[in-house]
Amino acid sequence: MTSPLQHVAIIMDGNGRWAQKRHHSRTYGHIRGAKVAKDMIQVAREIQLPYLTLFTFSHENWSRPQDEVNFLMRLFKKQLLKEQPQLIKNKIRFRCIGNLAALPKDLQKIIQYLSEETQTFNTLHLTLAISYGGQQEILEAAKKLALQALQGEISKQELLNLTENQFETFFQSSALPPPDLIIRTSGEMRLSNFFLWQAAYSELYITSKYWPDFTKEDFLEALEHFKKRHRRYGKTQEQVLPHVNVN
User: CB 3.0-4.6 Å disulfide test: which of 8, 29, 135, 151 passes with 15?
Assistant: First the structure.
């Protein structure tokens, strides 16, 4: 038996390929993907999951065709405005992480409003990683630390004695616990620059399904797989499960 599940993060991959296989535009796939995201948020509420993070738009996604990027920005705005009443009604704590300054101004305002309006809620902590990159988050944290050191706010000895936990306080995602489980759709076997630091001991669950085909049953199946994992954190199996004979 593994430790209790606190935080699930999902790499929602495959919208465009799902649509193209059905001879639709990639934008149609994104629309369907947005509906699935809404459904999975509801599942998270039903099972009383404390934290859910959705990898919505990566740092690298800015290099996609401009028409697709523009469509996605409009879709994000539309969906957030549409779901705003439900987020507040259901007392969902809403956050966004990533380079939010790169987003359109109107989208930034909606994100800021929702973040402030829901900051006291804790039924579900919902985080959207948008314009997000794991390498970029680590780099920005290092810059903040270096700036404090240059300004004399941190001594040389404090810097030399810095722990992993102390460094994590400089992360944009510092309010979130590390993800226990990372789910990735579309069958790709990589993290794609997502939660590179935080995923150090995350369990990974890869499904070949494209995101628009992902269902509640798929989500629950991933959670069942997680329950069967033995998280050792560098220890031996005997240390974690002393009652089990591994010979």
Answer: 29
